[in-house]
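The material for today's practical consists of a large collection of protein records. There is nothing in a record beyond a sequence line and a structure line. Backbone structure tokens are a discrete shorthand for how the chain folds in space. Nothing more is needed to start thinking about how sequence determines fold. As an example, a complete record with its sequence and its structure tokens follows.
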Amino acid sequence: MKRREKLTGEQRVALALDLIRGESTLAQVCARYKVSHTTAYKIRKAFLQGGGEAVMGRRTRMIEMLWDRVARLERALGARSSDDPADGRE
């Protein structure tokens, strides 16, 4: 049987919210997102435990960590360059 593509972070959040709102049955939500009951419950549990960020996935958190690192490095370089006599300030 062909494996379906993984849900995006946005789809996971929407699935969790659909389950939490209770406007659709579990079977309807599972059919809409083409996931098993177990997967749907795992996504809902992760959402409830950690909010939307928990189900957005590792990639989103990794990007945020990299941007934080870039900002720290830019601050470090900026502080160092102000002491650098080669920048025209003596």
Q: What stands out?
A: Residues 81 and 87 are 7 Å apart (CA to CA). The chain has four helices and no strands.
